[in-house]
Amino acid sequence: MTPLTKILREKIEKHGALSVHDYMEAALSHPEYGYYTRQNPFGKSGDFVTAPEISQMFGELIGLWCIDTWSKLGEPAQFNLMELGPGNGTLLADALRSGALVPEFIDAAHIHLVETSDRLRIRQKAALSHPSIFWYSDIPDLDNGPTIIIANEFFDALPIHQYEATAGKWYERFIDWKDDQFAFSVDTVSHKTLPPPSDADSNLILEICPQGIKCLNSISQSLQKFGGAALIIDYGSANAIYGDSFQAVRDHTIQNPLVDPGMSDLTAHVKFPQLISEARKYPVDIHGPTSQGRFLERLGIEARAALLKRSATEEQRKTITSSLRRLTSAAEMGTLFKVLAISSGLTAPPEGFDL
Ligand SMILES: C[S@@+](CC[C@H](N)C(=O)[O-])C[C@H]1O[C@@H](n2cnc3c(N)ncnc32)[C@H](O)[C@@H]1O
Predict the structure, then answer these.
(1) Is residue 293 part of a domain?
(2) pLDDT digits (tens, 9 = 90+) for 21-77
(3) How far is residue 165's CA from residue 204's CA, in Å, rounded to a whole number?
(4) Which InterPro entries match (predicted)?
C-alpha cells in the first residue's frame, strides 16, 4: 500500500468518503506524496509526453504567436507573459528563443509562471535564462499592463467534481474505501445548486472544475481591464458537456485512477463549453476552439519542419517528420487537443483561428 493510499484510507475511515475532487487534488498535489510533488512526469522516461516535449516546433510557433499578439496590442513597452503550469519550462524556453527574433518583444516581457510544484519550479529555473521571472502558486493580479497567457495541458490537471444524473437530480460521486480498496460511491442526498438534469440526461456524468472556472474568471477579468490574450491548449471536446473523463496515466498507459494515488497522472478532459461560458460573462473576444492540428498548420508548422530538415541528419529528419505527425495528425494529438483564445484590446484577431 502506498503512503498516500494509507493517508486517504484513514481520512475516509475518520470523516467519510472523499469527493472525486478531494481525491484528485491529494493524488496530484499532496505536499509529500502528490504526483507532481514527487515524480518527474514528462518525457520518454516519464509517464506521458506533452506537445512541447515532442518537438521544439511547438514552443517556437507559440513564441511567434506571442510576438504577433504583442504587435496587435500596439507593441507595448512593457507587458506580462504568463504561463500556467509550465512543467519542465520547455515550451517557454522554445518560445523565448523564437521571441528573440524581435529584441523589443523580449525587452518588454516580464515573465510570470504559475506553478505549485517546487520540484518543477527548479526545472523551470534551469530551463529559462530570462532576467525577469516571477513564480506564483495562483494566478496573480497584475496591473502593470497587458498580459499574454499560455496554458498547455494545465486545465486538465485541475481537480474536478463528478455528478451523476438520476431521475431529474444530480448526485455527487465520491470515493470510498471498501473491501480493502478505493471504490466509487454516490451521495444519497441530491445536489441543490446545479440546474437539474432532464430525464433524457439520466445516467450521464457531469464534471465541474471549480479551479478552472476560477482561473477563467481571473484571466477574463484581467484581459478586460488591461488587454491581452490567453491561449489555452488542452484535450477535450469542443461541444460535449457530459461524460466521465476521469483517468490515470502511468508509464504511457491508461490505469485505474483508484489504484495507487500519487503514482500516476490523474486528469479530466477540459470542458471547453464551460470555459467559454465563463469567459462570456466578460466583454472579451473568444476565438475557437479549433483543433491543435489546424492551429499549428495555420501558424506554419510545415514550413518550420521543412526549414529544420534542411540542416538535419537523416535520423533527425525522421524525428522531425514523426513529431510533425504526432502534433498535427487526427490519429494522434491533432484533433483531440483543442486551442481556445480569449482576447481583449487587439487590433486584429489572434493568428491560428478561422475568421
Ligand atoms: C500536464 S503538466 C503540463 C506541463 C507543460 N505545460 C507542458 O506542456 O509540458 C501540468 C502542469 O501544471 C502544474 N499544475 C498542476 N496543478 C496546478 C495548480 N493548481 N496550479 C499551478 N500549477 C499547477 C503542474 O505542476 C505542471 O507543471
Answers:
(1) yes
(2) 999 999 999 999 999 887 677 766 677 789 999 999 999 999 999 999 999 999 999
(3) 5
(4) NDUFAF7, NDUFAF7_sf, SAM-dependent_MTases_sf
- Cα(310) to ligand 1 centroid in Å equals 34
Q: Is 79 in the pocket of ligand 1 (CB under 6 A)?
A: no
When divided into structural domains, the chain yields a total of 2
Nearest ligand 1 atom, CA 42: 9
- Quick check: CB of 117 below 6 Å from ligand 1? yes
Q: What are the distances in angstroms from CA 228 to CA 74, 91, 147, 217?
A: 10, 19, 5, 14
Which pLDDT belongs to residue 269?
96
Which residue from 24, 28, 36 has its CB within 8 A of the most atoms of ligand 1, so it is best to mutate? Answer: 36
Ligand 1 centroid vs 203 CA: distance in angstroms?
31
User: What integer pLDDT is reported at residue 46 of this predicted model?
Assistant: 73
pLDDT-derived band at 201 (thresholds 50, 70, 90) equals confident
Report the C-alpha gap between 106 and 100 in whole angstroms: 6
Per the structure, the complete domain to which residue 24 belongs is given by 1-33+161-208+239-269
276 lies in the same domain as 261: no
The amino acid at residue 30 is: H
